[in-house]
TrEMBL record:
Keyword Transcription: no
Domain (DAGKc): residue spans on this chain: 2-132
Stated name of the protein: Diacylglycerol kinase family lipid kinase
Alphabetical list of InterPro entries matching this protein: ATP-NAD_kinase_N (IPR017438), Diacylglycerol/lipid_kinase (IPR005218), Diacylglycerol_kinase_cat_dom (IPR001206), Lipid_Phosphate_FormReg (IPR050187), NAD/diacylglycerol_kinase_sf (IPR016064), YegS/DAGK_C (IPR045540)
Cofactor section: Mg(2+)
Record-linked Pfam families: DAGK_cat (PF00781), YegS_C (PF19279)
Single Gene Ontology MF annotation: kinase activity
PANTHER family from the UniProt entry: LIPID KINASE YEGS, SPHINGOSINE KINASE
Keywords: ATP-binding, Kinase, Lipid biosynthesis, Lipid metabolism, Magnesium, Metal-binding, Nucleotide-binding, Phospholipid biosynthesis, Phospholipid metabolism, Transferase
Length: 344
């Protein structure tokens, strides 16, 4: 009887970085084929990764590996929750928040080694308005940016850049009420982030204390701020100390309801969706199996030089040959710059 485990690699050809053909060759060379038999599927449209993963789980596939970013991970993760199929990750997005939190190496060879080690770990996931998320979700400026970003393809790069940058400068904080078991608290906020993982991606730690296994979500509320707050907020975002800023309020909860003045956009793992005035956000403990490093590498000391960090980020963006890919990468880059702006 064949005792090899079955893996399906799901490639999102349009996600952030890395040439995907190179990764497919590496898989052939580096994956332990005495342990695994594998197949590869490429997504053809948004939502396709979810369909592939749902079918894989129904067929009893052992592991579905996302070759993409947090959007692809969301699609695959939500199809695998509460199944016996584990999710693996070869990080290929522009932010890679979940993979970074799990200490999965950013280089594909290292990520394949993690698959070969085959260590399965159960992690929590969240739901906002019944939509699963694995990294972060929220309302406010971030959700607004995710919506602008989703519309960008239809309206063209220049219009997108112009509108989003302009609106980021004039974005007005809104009033929200957060209801938990002990009552309701009102906040005026630029954004409210509900975090399962500690970061948005690119080591931007919106919820530095968040854990994927504590059954709780870390809520970060960014209250209105002035230009004088910008330097400390931006440094603290990248040095895992944002929770020390006086403009930031934090809570740890299993479940909350966000009440807002009107219906509108929220985001889940960076993708926008429209919702009503009241949004239930909750964490489900250990609902997803993931393949993660046996012993996470020690966390590096907090980076002190934010400029270096930003330069590293810019330097990591490859320039690919087709105009469409360049277009998309520019959009990605802009999205991440805006994400940074939104935390300042
Ligand atoms: N073949 C496809 N055509 C169009 N869209 C796709 C296709 N496959 C997947 N998608 C969508 O592409 C979006 C972006 O992918 P993903 O989030 O993985 O990359 P990223 O945005 O570069 O990474 P990150 O979220 O880490 O910044 C996802 O929301 C996914 O639904």
């Amino acid at each position: 009887m064949d005792t090899k485990k079955r893996i399906i690699f799901v490639v999102n050809p349009i996600s952030g970085t890395h040439g995907k053909e190179f990764i497919l060759k590496l898989i052939e060379r580096e994956l332990d084929q005495s342990m695994y038999e594998y197949s590869i599927r490429k997504t053809e449209y948004a939502g396709h990764a979810s369909e592939i993963a749902t079918q894989a789980a129904a067929e009893g596939t052992d592991i579905v590996v996302a070759i993409g970013g947090d959007g692809t991970i969301n699609e695959i993760g939500r199809a695998l929750i509460h199944t016996n199929t584990a999710m693996g990750i070869i990080p290929c997005g522009s932010g890679n928040g979940l993979a970074r939190h799990l200490h999965i190496p950013m280089e594909p060879r290292g990520a394949i080694k993690v698959l070969n080690a085959g260590k399965v770990k159960a992690i929590d996931y969240g739901r906002i308005d019944n939509r699963p998320f694995f990294c972060t979700c929220g309302v406010g400026f971030d959700a607004f940016v995710s919506l602008k970003f989703a519309d960008a393809g239809k309206r063209g790069l220049l219009t997108y850049l112009e509108n989003t940058l302009h609106e980021s400068l004039t974005y007005q904080p809104e009033t929200y009420e957060i209801e938990n078991e002990s009552g309701t608290v009102r906040y005026k906020a630029f954004l409210i982030a509900c975090a399962n993982a500690s970061q948005y991606g690119n080591n931007a730690y919106i919820a530095p204390q968040a854990s994927l296994t504590d059954g709780m979500m870390d809520i970060t509320i960014l209250e209105p701020f002035t230009v004088l707050d910008v330097p400390s907020l931006s440094i603290q975002l990248f040095t895992r100390t944002l929770d020390q800023n006086s403009r930031i309020k934090t809570m740890k909860e299993k479940s909350i309801i966000i009440h807002r003045e009107k219906e509108g956009v929220f985001h889940f793992d960076g993708d926008p969706a429209m919702g009503g005035k009241d949004l239930k956000v909750e964490i489900i403990h250990q609902g997803l199996q993931v393949i993660a490093p046996i012993r996470p590498r020690r966390m590096p000391s907090p980076p002190l030089n934010i400029l270096q960090h930003f330069t590293d980020f810019i330097g990591r963006q490859p320039f690919t040959s087709t105009i469409a890919q360049k277009h998309r990468q520019l959009l990605m880059l802009n999205q991440h710059i805006l994400r940074r702006l939104s935390k300042k």
